[in-house]
Structure formats: C-alpha cells, structure tokens
Specification:
Blueprint: H1 7-42, H2 47-61, H3 65-78, H4 85-111, H5 114-122, H6 127-157, H7 169-180, H8 183-216
Helix pairs in contact: 1-4, 1-7, 1-8, 2-4, 3-4, 4-6, 5-6, 6-8, 7-8
Length: 222
Amino acid sequence: MNNEFNANHLMYLLHGAAWTLGLSAVGFVGGSLLGFVVALGRIAPSRWLRGSVMVYVQLVQGTPLLILMFLAYFGLSIAGLDVSPLVAAGLAMTVYASAYLGEIWRGSLQSVPRTQWEAAECLSFSASQRLFLIIVPQALRIATPPTVGFLVQIVKNTSLASVVGFIELARAGQVINNALFEPFLVFSIMAVLYFALCYPLSLWAHALETRLQVGRRVPLGT
C-alpha cells in the first residue's frame, strides 16, 4: 500500500461513511419501530406493563452502547447464532435507540393536554382512535425536533460498531492509519466527514424546532 494518503484511501473512507449511514438507518428505523412500542407500554393502563417497560428502558439506558455491541455479537454466538457484524451492530443500535426514542415519544404523548383525551372520549372514539387520530398527530409536532436531534447521536455512535469488526467510517480510518501512521491527517479527515454527515441533521432539527414553535404561537387578541 502506498505510504502517502491518496485518492484510494479517501474512497475507502467514503465507503466507510456510506456504511455509517446504512447502520444509522438500520438503528433509527428499527429503534423507531421498537421505540413506539416502548412509548405505548410506558403509558399503558396496566401498572405491570408500565413497570416492565420501565425496567427495560432503565437497563438499556444504564448500559453503555459498547457493551450492547459486545453482547449482541458474542452473546448471540454463544447462543449458537452465527451473526455478521452488521446484524450484531444493527441489533445493538436498535435496542439502544428504542429506549431513548421511546422515552422521547412517551414524553411527547403525555405532553398533549388531558382535555384532548377527554374530548375524544366524549365523541365516543375507541382507545385506538383516540390515540392515532387525536393524540399522535399532536404529539408528532412535539417529538419531531428531539427525534431528529437524537438521529445525530445515532450517526456518531455508529463508530462503536468497529469493536465487532464492522467497517464503518471509524474502522476504515483505523485501518488506513495503521497502514500510513498518519493519525492527525487521517482522523482530521474523519472528523470532517462526520461533521458533513451530522451538521445537516443538526440544522434540520433546529429548523424544525423553529418552525413548530412559530406554528404554536397564538395570535394576540384571539
């Protein structure tokens, strides 16, 4: 391998960045689906169900993502399941994201005024109709900015997937640095690429928050 950084090395980093986006998408989509179940469990009428989901949230939030990566990769292997680094990392990211997104969405659902629930009940809506037709659309306005903001954290936390052998941006940078021994150059380029991935999401979250705050303003005299 050439001992000077060249276009091939840059392409390798860009390839790793693409896998970073792919793993982020897997973690976010999987975490969103499981997180919505978590949010519903946290506001369920059953005390036992609420308590069980709360234990799940506390366990996941109290466990470093790095440990979840190890558990997903080596734990499933011990159980007799031969999983690829992508599957293990995607599973760990899904579990990790579900606990945080579930809490974001639980708070958003509970922030909808109680009078909205009561008004829907007075209209003889079923429980599912009250939730999906009345409450969820209002909660979406509240949940969107922090959800997009958390997506930035997911993108950055994919760097931990390198510990199970998944070649994303951080792992690609390590491979190149091990060959070139140019840590400042290689990691500076990695920082620029991470910034290029995360900064647009941060701007989007800020724009959404500003737009939704404007949408909630009540004109004077009403």
